[in-house]
Amino acid sequence: xxxxxxxxxxxxxxxxxxxxxxxxxxxxxxxxxxxxxxxxxxxxxxxxxxxxxxxxxxxxxxxxxxxxxxxxxxxxxxxxxxxxxxxxxxxxxxxxxxxxxxxxxxxxxxxxxxxxxxxxxxxxxxxxxxxxxxxxxxxxxxxxx
Length: 145
Fold this sequence. Notes:
- The chain has one domain (2-118): Rossmann fold.
- With 145 residues, the chain is of the alpha/beta class.
- It is 37% helix and 19% strand.
- The termini are far apart.
- 30% of the residues are buried.
- Helix 3 (76-89) links the parallel strand 4 (68-71) and strand 5 (94-98).
- It has a 6-stranded parallel sheet, with helices on both faces.
């Protein structure tokens, strides 16, 4: 599969490396060349310097052949804008945006965007790890501690 990833931070670089090791074609975009220092010398994908909402930058990353676009920068607005460009302008079949604000998650879903919200994931994981099944929110049982 062909992947284009926006953001070469911890998540983006890890995702790119894992997909590359699995044999997928990967291009990763970031605003600064320093971000690509996170990629090992064995990375066979493309590293593209630029802004992820710029059509020319996206094209140089191979967006026109992409099966998946993942926007994983630290900025919700950047991720949403880039995801909309990938989905609407380039008709990428699968578009995923990382967002931090769970309140806006419903709005993005209404726009037809798939999102991953670390805030929601981590909160749910902590609740599931700490509370037993019969003590989840909405339960009438009280914890014996």
